[in-house]
Amino acid sequence: MQSMARVEIYTTPLCPFCIRAKRLLGRKGVTFEEIDLWQSPGRREEMLARAQGRRTVPQVFIDGAGIGGCDELHALDREGGLDRLLAGGA
Fold first, then answer.
1. Where along the chain do its domains lie?
2. Residue 14 and residue 1: Cα distance in Å, rounded?
3. Its pTM surpasses 0.90
4. Which of 14, 19, 41, 83 lies 20 to 30 angstroms, CA to CA, from 57?
5. 26-63 per-position pLDDT tens digit
6. Residue 36: in which H helix or E strand, if any?
């Protein structure tokens, strides 16, 4: 299998949308870097800059490109685009 894309997800522990997004990535066998904003509050500004001001979590990035949050991630999956991005074929 080819190498998977780099996936980063900004989260907070009690966020149900974060849990859903991580569950979807887990079902796809994706290894991802989780940035917990409760444990690393200083990284919130980084997230805001990368997510073009979007303040909600989760914020998902695939190979550095902002995907959005949980709803956008699931919509991308329904449309068939998530697997292509995860395979590194944008």
1. 7-86
2. 34
3. yes
4. 83
5. 999 999 999 999 999 999 999 999 999 899 999 999 99
6. strand 32-36
